[in-house]
Model the fold of this input.
Amino acid sequence: MKTTLTHRFGIEHPIMSAGMARVAQAPLVVAVSEAGGMGCLGGVSYLADALRDEIRTIRAGTAKPFAVNLLVPPSLVDEGAASWEPVRRLWQLLSPEDREKLRGVEPLLTPGAVARQVEVILDERPAAVVLTFDVPEWFVTACNERDIAVIALVGSVGRAKQAEIAGAEFIVAQGTEGGGHTGHISTMVLLPSVVDTVSVPVLAAGGIVDGRGLAAARCLGAHGAWMGTRFIASEEGYGHRAYKDRLIAASSKDTTLSRAYTGKPLRTLQNDWTREWQTRENEIHPFPAQYAVAGTRVETGYQDGDLQQGMMPAGQAIELLHQIQPAGDIVRTIVADADRILRSVSSSL
Ligand SMILES: Cc1cc2nc3c(=O)[nH]c(=O)nc-3n(C[C@H](O)[C@H](O)[C@H](O)COP(=O)(O)O)c2cc1C
Done:
């Protein structure tokens, strides 16, 4: 299955694993890239030195192309942004134990840390950087000078247009079904709308976990799929076994959109913790300050496996997940199934 995505990066299959903070560490990235897809590191969670080390660990594991996900809105890159003021205040209130548990979101709570992540990326030159929220033109220019492709993850047609104007080479259209930060429009509607609107190639995200999803995405005009939830339930994805087992057992109605973790809507497993915040919506701080209040919950979920008190993002397609598998097998199975489906549909015409 060859598309603009496979040609651009010289990869075998039009599949990218999502750059999920904490979940997508070197082992997952290596496994997906080695299987012929393109793995993406969840770069958001690493301070600069650790980011460089993780990129080098990936390079030690594979010579194949990989991507890194970053968030580079001005509110995070600019050390003088007003948005840092509440972060500083909330940080002072934290106990040493809680600060230790904020490791995975530390770069989002440390003025200057994202600017240093950017320096590492420009220096290390992964094949692609996937940006969520904002696509600043200065960043695209710097990447273009180093042959790093910029891919923008969007949840609306308006954002897709902005990303194209800013110079993104590919756009990932993510429907509301997706796990993590997400918009309000379904993949079935958003994907063809974005395909009709921009002239750069589009990848599909949100609700794709099997060959049927990839085949459908291709029919709707996508040049490949970007998948998160499917790869949490992989052997290489970082996360407590209880979290992965819950994904297999849960159904679509077990996810909810909550602003409790970051201040922006995020699809996660519904539990006692998300239900408690439903009653405290008016106490939620704007992004990124809410991380200082709730950022510890990611470790409660991913590391401690506390299903009721942890924050555990997941997409609606958990309904379709039946087993935890090696990431390479996931890539190969999805591509083989999509290929079979597309041939069978085409031969039936
Ligand atoms: C556990 C988890 C963590 C995520 N973390 C990030 C992140 O750090 N940056 C980002 O751009 N998207 C993140 N996302 C969203 C994914 O990039 C992706 O768009 C989404 O998972 C696609 O939908 P799906 O889960 O149905 O495959 C995350 C998603 C999940 C499930």
In short: The pocket of flavin mononucleotide is lined by residues 18-21, 23, 42, 44, 69, 132, 153, 174, 177-181, 205-208, 226-230, 232, 313-315, 317 (CB under 6 Å). The domain at 4-88+106-238+320-341 is CATH 3.20.20.70 (TIM Barrel).
